[in-house]
Amino acid sequence: MEKFDIIVIGAGASGLVAAGRAAELGANVLLLEKMERVGRKLLITGKGRCNITNSDTISNFLKKTHPNSKFLKPAFSNFFSQDIINLFEKYGVETKVERGGRIFPTSDSAAKVVEALLEYVKNSGAKIMTHCRVKNLLFENDVLVGVKVSNKDKTQNIFAKKIIIATGGLSYPATGSTGDGYRFAESSGHNIIKTQPALVPIETEGRLSADLQGLSLKNVKAIVWVNKKKLAEDFGEMLFTHYGLSGPIILTLSRLIVQEFDKKNEIEISIDLKPALDDPKLDKRLQRDLNENGKKQIVNVFKQWLPSKLIPVFLKKLGITANKESHQISAKERKKIRLLMKNLRFKVSGYRAYKEAIITAGGIDTTNINKKTMASKIVENLYFAGEVIDINAETGGYNLQIAFSTAYLAAESAVKSCNIESL
Q: Phi, psi (5° rounding) for residue 358?
């Protein structure tokens, strides 16, 4: 039976890059994928547009990475955003920079990204086997020597000098991310940090979110309160859903919300709809507009202040009738309007499941991995890459770059350890 230099388990973002780079350096590489096609999760990232990376500096990347950002310094120093952009351009995928430094393919097509990575793997000379599920790692005399796989009802052992686990996390399980890598790692002695959905929408109590379903807000501030104390905040865009809150700033804050919710703490999210105005300035604005539109019904003045979908919700919460004339609004009512604009509250009742989470927090303990090589400190000949590791970041292309960078470093380290002379 053919013995490979390197087996890569999982043909997602990190697995494709790892297999491509290792084969490019002259290794005999086998890429194993249990699904019928490669890159399934990549196809749905960025709502099908694929936010490849971000134009941020390494230092800013690390600030947006948790829980052990220093772990990524060697990987980022070795292969970073411009490197992956160059790789995609080599295979015909031009890129563009959007708001917040987010980098997308100019085609807005995640499929083009997957096609480019697949071409990279094939051109580099790696062999790909789909519909091939890894059952477990193989050891001989406590030495890792390969994997046991099932393929079309046939079970076989495949041997290799080195193995790279790039199986992803638990998010979007329909794409094949079902936690296999955690099982392989734990069975071989690695510590698994408790996994949780991350970058995940938040569920809230009551009907308020449902009444606002579909409304997207820009330039607002969301604040997380835990047991009445302020924990964190973020500024930007958010979205109301039938079950609660979503959108970039909510997803970013969700990492902390999930942690605190699982501790059984009381969590609230307040939305500041007018973060650019402090209380005195906002009060002055409200007073001016009410005075200038004294004969107008208050519902029409609200159109100057809020999106139309928010207006009936506000009037109901404030107890103000829509046809009340502006000059009839009392100072007390004006204060209630101001306070609600600065502090629209939602009580957190839960969070969505892995099938709606962009990534998984937790995973293989970074203290079990050599950050300079991505090699296991516990099992010789074993390497890790991507989301299976206990590293996660905010939205904006950061997580895919982590996958690409750790995969590239793992591949180079594995090839070097095989004593293969690079092409």
A: -70, -40
- Domain identity same for 190 and 222: no
Are 157 and 13 within one domain?
Answer: yes
Residue 50's domain comprises: 3-196+361-417
Same domain, 14 and 154: yes
Alpha-carbon distance 113 to 105, whole Å? 8
φ/ψ of residue 232, rounded to 5: -160, 165
Q: Return the ∠ at Cα 343 (arms to 341 and 348), rounded to 5°.
A: 130
Q: Which two tokens stand for residue 231?
A: 């924990």
Q: Is the pLDDT of residue 78 over 60?
A: yes
Alpha helices, H only, 157-220 = 180-187, 208-211
Strands 154-165 and 382-384: parallel
Residue 64 shares a structural domain with residue 189: yes
pLDDT at 423 over 50: no
Helix (H) or strand (E) holding 117: helix 110-124
423 within some domain: no
Taking the whole predicted model, whether its pTM rises above 0.85 is answered as yes
- Tens digits of per-residue pLDDT, 251-306? 999 999 999 999 999 999 999 999 999 999 999 999 999 999 989 999 999 999 99
Question: Do 205 and 347 sit in the same domain of this protein?
Answer: yes
pLDDT value at residue 175 = 84
pLDDT of residue 153: 80
DSSP H or E run through 281: helix 279-292
Average pLDDT over the chain reads 95
The count of other CB atoms within 10 Å of the CB of residue 71 is 21
Mean pLDDT along residues 118-130: 97
Residue 146 and residue 50 share a domain? yes
